[in-house]
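Quick one - first record:
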Amino acid sequence: MRKGLNTAALLALISIISLSCQKPETPPDSTSSQETTQPTEPPKPQPAPGKYVLPLIETTDIHGHIVDTDESGTVLYRLAYVADKADDMRGHGDARKKDRLLLLDGGDLYQGASVSNLLSGWPLFVAIDQMGYDAVALGNHEFDWGIENTVDSDATLPDYEWNSLPYENKVPVLCANLYKDGQRVSFTSDYTIVEKSALAQNGDEIPVKIGIVGFAVNYASSIMSSQFTGKGFSIRADYSIVNTIAQELETNHGCHATILLTHGQAQSAAESLGSSSPIDLVLGGHSHGVFNDKTSWGLPYLQGGCYCTHYAAATLRFILDEKGNISFAGIGNMAVPSVNAASSTATSENADDLSEEILAVSDAALEATAQQQKEVLGYIKVGATTSYLQGSGQRAATMSNWMCDLIRRIGHADVAFVNSGGIRTSFPLNGQSRRDITVANVYEMFPFNNHVYVYSLTYEELLQVFQYALTSGGSALFSRMTGLDCYFSSGVVIKLIKDGTTIYHSGVWTSDWSSRSVTMAVSDYVATTERTDYYTGMPNPLIEWNQTSRLIESNAIDNESAVAVLREESAASGGHLYIDTSPHFIQQ
């Protein structure tokens, strides 16, 4: 809601005040010879009994992609397209009525695309509010930059400035099962109740109340420990919490229908609620999947993909009976439409398919990040992709090699690891001989603002890291590596080769290599995530080493440091940025 009066409202107020200050034509003590009567409006006809519908749209896992760019560099205004589809249901311009659509998001709004990362999520704060969302779920990536920076203390999205005016953001943030030090946090709401208008085919409308319950799967392992468990946060993944709240909303708050809005896979959440759940629809997220189905007992669930390449849509159906009673009649028209490139390009042909408001926000974000989007650090001659390198046992790719090498150089280290979940983008050549890399690309490569942790170890201690990396518990954390060749088979380290020299083979060290020092660099997430392997009982060894002198540095921020490293490399190489194409985890 914009603070203050707009010009039209101010002029109207001045006019009213001016009229009230004029002297009356008839003296106060005189009596008018004629009494004036005000015309009365005819009573509004009662809505006819029958079927009524309320449309619904869900987005999820936008990850900052208010805009996207195709291979040719054309900007795709994906969220502006979704906004226009929402207004097709609510009406455009002066005819727009927010109460004719239920608009929701499943979480992970900000972190990901450079246009959002470089502005700390500002484009999404603005767009979600301007689009009139009714609620958003709390995603795990809302913690990446510190939860205090992505959610206001009153359990709404952050306030912001737009067009030089301050706005108070009223969009509620929902999560009923998030705790801090054992107590429910105050910066999320358990639920929200929205009042909407369901329409009949003849244009009649009836008021309906929808209860929306927020929930999260236990995504603690997907968040940097320093931002989550390290601050006392925890998630209680107990679906009876949802069912209890939903029953309360329908029984005591007069809600005609209840919806679960969860940052968790839609199907899994629907099935976890149980067949006796009062929930009428499940809207999911987190997994980036597209879902449109029902459980075996008929509970519908939807999930709108990710990155604004899709959105979920449905209609809530209601019945008005002869006595004026309203009842919920189910979910219909479930679909997950795609947002294709042709429809979301700003062309004259698409002028009626893109929201002008969200186009303006998108263009403002592009303008604010134009320097970083245009500043070329250098070029690559090998595509940086997530495709597995042959022989790596699905543990190496050119993108991960490049990221590891950058972390090594940031930390002046011999060896570096990245986790599989930390690889968030790719830069293919798309048939070209080379590709420019910009500052903004680096912020896509390193979107989390991770600190780089640097350790001084012996090779004997580094072998512990490799052994842990080959367990099911450690494989996702220490999944990619450069600086050493590790040959493995069936979860066992066979040999280690350093610069062509075998330093370890089948349990035997060469010469004094076991006691020699080695420097290792990893991201904050890898360094601080506690994940004990279920089968072997092996913990992440870095958790213990963080409290010792083995940890020698943890101040450098990955993305800004990587920009500095690449600038230095480009200056020395004539712009060519090297990418290693060899696997360093090698399966035998």
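second record:
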Amino acid sequence: MRKALLGGALITAALLGPQAHAAPALYLLGGVDGKMLTNTDANNYFNVNSVLGPKGYGSGVAHLGLQFDRYFAVEASVDSGLDRANDMTYYNFGFPTRHITTDWKLTTYSVTPGLTWASHDSVNMLGFRIGQANLSGHVEDDAYGANGSYDQNAQTTDYGLIFRSSTLMADHFSVGLEFGYDWTVFNNISNKNGTGSYDPPQSPERNVSTTGHNGDQTTLDFSGGHIALVVGLWSGPPVSGRTGEDE
């Protein structure tokens, strides 16, 4: 019986051939990210009609992850540096009567579990990202010679879908291209550190009106598609060995 079992095992092994086995790998990816925004929210904020059109914005992105096996990975990410700076001048009878500048900076922290298709020299990942988005803003308003400014901050839950394809070289270095879409909307923005005509500032933030910022409650929408180029360092290949599946 033992000889029969051993013979069966040998035959099975011969039929299956050499099999790659998963090796958990730690990785660190970093790169530059570009996102396209419609700026519809900015037009609403400034109480203007389509003056600001779609625009692309850049930021830096980093992922620290663990590739558990050929089919699953999880990573923690930070995306920082997206800076929306706007400058709006209002005119009455052809003369400038009001000047407003805004500076809205976005930073997100998130966790992404993902399904992967990994080999010894490549990893493709499809993941769902969830985390927290942080808004840091500054507004300056010179209305008819009455100057004032204030800072802004807000937090919201941030969601996203990503697909990334990476090629590994020498087992420890990778280059990848990432595509995705983010849902990031701030519906309640707090104001602080008011000066001049905005001391103290009102909260929550409201859209620009003829008498200040007394329009509808402000919503800032950072949702949009993005593309990123990332390079990475790996503790080792996600899958060791070569099989016909990897060829």
